[in-house]
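Q: What does the assembled structure look like for these inputs?
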Amino acid sequence: MTSTRDLVRDERDQFAFHDDITYLRETKRGLTRETVEEISGFKGEPDWMLQFRLRAYDHFLKRKMPVWTDGLADIDFDKIVYYRKPSEREEKSWDDVPEQIKSTFEKLGIPEAERKFLAGVGAQYDSEVVYHSVREELSKIGVVFMGTDQALKEYPDIFRRHFGTVVPPEDNKFAALNSAVWSGGSFVYVPKGVEVPLPLQAYFRINGENTGQFERTLIVVEEGAKVHYIEGCTAPIYATDSLHAAVVEVVALPHSKVRYTTIQNWSNDVYNLVTKRAHAHAWSTVEWVDANTGSRKTVKFPAIYLRGEGARAEVISVAVAGRGQHQDTGAKAIHLAPNTTSRIVSKSVSKDGGRATYRGQLKVAPGATGVTASVRCDALMLDDESRSDTYPYIDIQEDDTTMTHEATVGKISADQIFYLMSRGLTENEAQNLVIQGFLEVFTKELPMEYAIEFNRLVKLEMEGSLG
Amino acid sequence: MTGVAEPSTSEPSRPRRARLLPSDLSYRPDAALIERRAAAEPDWLAADRRAALAAIGELPIEPNQLYTGYVDLRAARLADTVAWERVDTSGRDASTELEPGLSAIAAFEDDRITTLAIDEAARGAGVIVESLGALIERDPALARTLLTDGASLAADDRLAQLSRAAWNQGALVWVPPGVVLEQPIVLRWAVGAPGRALHVRSIVVLGEGADATLVEEIVPSGATVPGGQGLFTSTTEIQLGGHARLAMASLQESGPDQVVFQQRRAFIAEGADLRWALAQLGGRLVRSRVDNVLAGDRGTVEQVEIVFGAADQLHDLTSYTRHVGRDTTGQLLSKGVLMDRARSYMKGLITIEKSAIGTDSFLGEFGMNLAKTARAVAIPSLEIDQPDCRRAAHSSSVGPIDENQLFYLESRGIPADDARKFIVLGFLEPVVARVPLEDARERLRDALEAKWAIGTASPATAA
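A:
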């Protein structure tokens, strides 16, 4: 089996690094009302935002920790630094980005990616967007792609009209936390009728022990407009736990189309507790394409509220859970309007004692007639130590809904492995191939570069577990 | 009027009830009554009741965090409901006449035992069908083992512990090893006296290699009155010895205002086979829980359950199937048809433990909403610790009547109304066909048809 070692070379070191950054501003560890006021003060925010943060903070204190998933009690909110600002202002050109930060991104391959095909880059280094560029032609057609903090200053009207409308602070404990201390994240605005020709992409990174990442992303797509947003995450490996509690809000106005792609590869000490939700208005389409490979625990259920007639929702969710990991992921489709459709496809792989949980909700509210919905969940377990759970919630309150749900759990078929090995593959190669095939429903939705990177990530994850 | 508002004298102030949360149970077991009962019972039983009563206060109605969002007990208006003070558990006045085609029958009506009969051949083979009161007198040691084994009722479930504390009637069905009964045994519960609670436990033990069929019927008693609500809680505690086979059908057709809480738990030993056919038609609020424990290797369970809900009925059904032994099989199917404002919550969890290599388990939950105001909830879940299984899958669907089927039948000259009826009744037929007793099967068919006729005549169901 030595040959397979070469095939799935351990490339993790390449992504696991930590630069010594001098932080220019940061809050004290722990969260108090003063922390919240301090963050808002640092940023020179309008009073309504401070009030929003304080309202969220009050709710965060009141709200009990969720009990339907386990392990969250280990989070020590007092140990976390809630705000860090590594550089003073947003950089417009790559050359102006501080050298240390730049080298970090170079290791991740951002500049090449940008040169090749990217429409814009918003790279998050700890709690602030430090590097940002939007292609000239995009600016010309009115597309806004910038840090969320900057957008609050530059586009206060659009911002205030939509911010917090999709995910109110009272939604859940971690949405409340994010709303109180949010910093960074991306803001995307696509004007009426504009189709963004290339994917917009942002790399997110956590750097620094116990740094909380509370980015807040707001995407507003006007009537008939179209955009594809991609986020990818890598993080340095650290011994103590980091917390990542993001909120992503997407507003898809009538006849628009939004696709949001995530490849998440947090290091295995990160708690990734994310609220992602979209409002799909009439005849719009919202697609979440979501992969979770890293983190210690991910709790994430990308949701689509189908609010207007004829809206369409699609979620493709992939999770790989390895040693010490729990991927508690899934999707929600809430049908609130007639003739809406949703399709959820979930694939999970668990191995080395990892646990993959699919949790989903499909709801058809009274009045949402003519709904068609489907949910498909498949899970692969690679060994006896691992665990796989499926918890779909289906609540139908209309008589002409057509809903189907299927779920299966199993192991890799010995027949498939035998067949591939008889064609000259090693066992490890055969397993990798089967797993890649199992996840293909996801990979085929990715731009090519991402598909390659994702397959490499999966191979990395498989490293050490096979053979 | 200034200052502090006072109750207005011009309008008669109506006594306002405290607002109930969906998870609040308005029924409280009467501790003094339980004490009075315990005083006349063996010490071990009194102690068991007290332990359960002490546990009740701490326990949630819904022990599973997955399902806490789907509890609604508001239709149970049981604050003034009390358990029967005196219940005949001896059966001394009961008829001993056996209906043809049965091996045995135990029939109960509210606080009385109306029939206790067993055919001679079965009696000769050692089969016992008796009240729990009679069991305690006849064989206290066995009674103690069966009633206090600690595992036959869910320790974390308030309704299970309510039965354990407050049970005031019960039956034992005992089939010795190797005995094969060709004819079914019937347990009939006629309940419905308004303001009264009947708490029963049924214990079913099949020895190694035994083979039996059991039909449970829950029907309105003579005391049932329209608008009068009573409470019926029941347990069915089943132990199947190695290679035993049990087919158990249950027809729940209690009155339209009755509250019914059911707990069923089966331990299935090596090679044993349990087949449930459960029909839920009656009741205003029904909350049912089934636990199948496939403890031995190669055990199998087949569970087919139907709900036919109309008016404001809520059928809240949970089933747990735990695979522990090797090469066990679970085949679980729930189907619901909902008219008017009926709701059905179908929750099922398959757990495949690490030891359960070679499991084959399937859970299906299928709903048919026939009215805009009906609501179907399906939560089929899987928890899997052992990937080496033959199958681990679930599937669910909710939809209207299939237009293609309708078109097909109409194209064969069947009027639309009849075609709809055939499709709905055909959807529920898998349970009907599994009811082992011809009479009961026919009665269930009639009941389904009657319910369909009433439902389609009401304006809330769009034709």
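Chain A touches chain B at residues 67-68, 366, 369, 379-384, 386-411 (CB under 8 Å).
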